[in-house]
Design a protein that fits this description.
CATH superfamily of the largest domain: Endonuclease Chain A
Order of helices and strands: HHEHHEEHEHEHEHEEEEHEH
Largest sheet: 8 strands, mixed
Structural class: alpha+beta
Oligomer: single chain
CATH architecture of the largest domain: 2-Layer Sandwich
Shape: elongated
Distance between the termini: 59 Å
Radius of gyration: 33 Å
CATH topology of the largest domain: Endonuclease, Chain A
Length: 282
């Protein structure tokens, strides 16, 4: 039974329906079947078997023997398979012709559409915290050569659960790229954040501590920017994030990042300077 199921599945790949495949496999078991007999043998509903036999006959995979009670025989498998393959070839040739004609017909419309641009096509606005987290994770996973970030509270997601960030830092660093993150001084008072920073450092991130940061910011590969904009209208806790694909903006913000980076302290120096101590390693 498993062999018949496999053979039926392979016949379906060659273009038969499941019922057609099962009826053909039943027909090859003896010289002639009546419709009722082949329905029982193939386990196909009797009310359907006539349509199935008619389809196989039209496709020249079965032969009908007229008589008081019509009989049906299968065409030899090698001939049947050649005919199925030939039908597939003709179908593919037809599809190639249709696709070629359609692509030529659609090309002028597509080209004319390239001249229309919306000035905000490259800006994505996110307000839902979960959507912001998902987009942030996707940005990190898409990074190839550089990730620069301003990291500051409040955090939308749990920093300890940022597995996408650890994976991205590891991958970009291993490829010879650069991963840098600036944290605010408050991070030194949170043993959990210090552990988070150490984990990212082990993955290849360079980290420094700045006295303050104006907003949360991520710059990916010098072309894509994610920035968190606190909402002055909605009040405390409400935020809007912008994802902007704009190399010139990314380059400008990259200069701002570099200026803050140069004035910031490495984590160990900051710990010494400000007297904070990380939680003991368990």
């Amino acid at each position: 039974m498993q062999t018949d199921d496999r053979r039926a599945a392979e016949l379906e790949e060659l273009g038969l329906t499941n019922y057609e495949a099962r009826v053909y496999l039943a027909l090859i078991r003896r010289d002639v079947f009546t419709a009722a007999e082949v329905a029982r043998e193939a386990r196909v509903p009797r009310q359907r078997v006539y349509d199935v036999l008619d389809g196989l006959t039209r496709r020249r995979l079965a032969v009908q023997h007229p008589g008081k009670v019509a009989g049906y025989s299968a065409v030899a498998p090698e001939i049947a398979m050649d005919r199925l393959v030939d039908q597939q070839r003709r179908s593919v040739a037809r599809l190639e012709q249709l696709s070629g004609n359609l692509s030529r017909e659609l090309l002028p419309t597509w080209l004319s559409g390239r001249t229309h641009t919306d000035p905000l096509d490259y800006v994505e606005v996110l307000r839902d915290p979960e959507a912001i987290n998902d987009r942030f994770a996707r940005l990190q996973s898409e990074a190839e050569r550089e990730i620069l970030s301003f990291t500051k509270p409040p955090y939308i997601g749990d920093p300890d659960e940022n597995e996408a960030g650890v994976a991205a830092a590891t991958r970009v660093h291993a490829a010879g790229g650069r991963v840098r993150s600036l944290y605010t001084r408050e991070a030194l008072d949170d043993p959990g954040m210090i552990a988070h920073i150490r984990r990212f450092e082990e993955a290849g991130e360079e980290a420094r501590i700045a006295a303050e940061l104006p907003l949360k910011l991520v710059i990916v590969d010098g072309s894509l920017v994610l920035c968190d904009m606190p909402d002055p209208v909605a009040g405390t806790g409400a935020t809007t994030s912008l994802v902007i694909r704009h190399p010139s903006l990314a380059a400008t913000l990259g200069l701002a990042f570099a200026a803050v980076w140069d004035s910031a302290l490495p984590v160990d120096e900051a710990l010494t300077a400000f007297g904070a101590r990380p939680a003991p390693v368990e």
